[in-house]
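Suppose you are handed a protein chain with no further information: no name, no annotation, nothing but its sequence. What can you learn? This example shows the usual starting point.
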Amino acid sequence: MIYLCENVIGLDFNFRYSKQAAGPFDRKLMHSIDQEFQRQGWFIVGREKTKYAKITYTPGEKFNSHKLYFNRYYRGVNGK
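A reasonable first move is to predict its three-dimensional structure. Written in structure tokens, the prediction is:
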């Protein structure tokens, strides 16, 4: 954000900016999440080649078993 503001108004703070990503743009993170989805049987992770690489998620054989983990992790949140 600072980088964009700096460029729009023509200032130079002399910062060394670097690209940092988390979430859907962090390849290592998403790869580990995809592996866990498949290991648990929650999703089948596929890759389609079109103009761009596209990741697809199809429900796996144990699709709804994630609810056990979800409810345990968020126990006590929102009155549960």
